[in-house]
User: Fold this.
Amino acid sequence: MTDFPWQARVLTLFPDMFPGPLGVSLAGRALENNIWALAARDIRNFATDKHRSVDDTPAGGGPGMVMRADIVAAAIDEAAAELPDVPLVYLTPRGATLTQSRVQDFAKGAGMILLCGRFEGLDERVIEARNVEEISIGDYVLAGGEVAAMVLLEAIIRLLPGVMGSGQSGLEESFETGLLEYPHYTRPREFEGIGIPEVLTSGDHGKVSAWRQAMAEQVTKERRPDLWAAHIGRKSDGDDN
Ligand code: ADE
Assistant:
């Protein structure tokens, strides 16, 4: 375990939404144990006018409002002064889709600044001027970036050293191996007339392992041809080298 907690700084118009679900269970215990630390900062604190406005009408017209570059930049600059050298991520459906391998990269670092958008989005100039990485959690649109930030944080936190307990647990999961997971079974031995695949009760670890690998391959082939193609590609690369 490292000496310092992994640092999450969330810039949001709704700081009260945090830690939310990250305050219970695995992530909540890790927060209590100082494995990670969280500060949610209200972007509105950086507003400069008497109405404390953070948004304005879009240049060129059209519906909705846009978050102002100057206000958001001030919020970013304060967080970046406190946490230099950590990635700065803006959660937006326009971003690159989040992957387990990007989550692993983030978990290896010292922390992250997460910027949550509301309204129609953020003035493009602040994204360029502050070298913001744009990340999406999937091809659908949420009402704002806060829940997406929680998704990203939960995916990272479970990988931090000391969070999941005795090693292993994460390694065989979907995406860590490039394949979806094999199916799981437990008691009762018979459920509504359906038994457990015999190999799993055979006590033969070699056979169990081979069966799980075959099932992981089958389920990936059926459900996610894109992952399967990538897996096959990686395997043949390996064979060539
Ligand atoms: N904000 C709104 N929708 C989002 C998405 N799909 N991913 C990340 N941030 C978002």
